[in-house]
Amino acid sequence: MSRAWLGRRSGCWAGCGDAPRRLRAAALHPRPPGPCEARTKRTPGPVQFGGFWGHGQLALGWPAGRQAASSQPPTPGVRVAAPEGAPVSSLGRAGLRPGRRRRRHSGALSVARRQGRHARSILATRARFRPGPQPSQAARVGLSWRHVHPRTAILGPQCRAARGLARPADPGPGAKPTAGAASFMNVADPDSGKHAGLVVRVAGLGPVRLLRALAQNPETTLYLTDQDGVVVKVFDLSCGRPDEVGYGPYMNYRSELATFEELQTVEPLRLFVPTFFGGDLDYERQYAYIAMERLRGHNLRHWGEALAAGGYDAAALDELRRALQEVLAIVDLFHRHGLVLMDFKPDNVIRLEDGAVRLVDLGAFFTPRHRHAPGEFLYAATPDHAEVVIDVSNLQAGVPPAPASDIFSAGVALFEMATGASRLDIHPATAEEMLATPAMYRFRDSQIADVWKAFPHLKEALPLVQTQLRERRLLFAEFWHLLKAYVAARVPDWEHLDAEQQGQILLSTGTTFIQEQLPAPLTWLAGPIARATVLRSLRIGSLGELARLLGNPAPEHVRADVLAHNCLLRHLETLGLPAEFADRLNVWDVRLDRRTGHWAIAAPAACWELADNAPFVYLRRSHTDDQGHTYWHAVDEFEADLTPAGRANLAQLRHDHRAWLGAAAVRAAGS
Question: pTM, whole model, 2 decimals?
Answer without folding.
Answer: 0.73
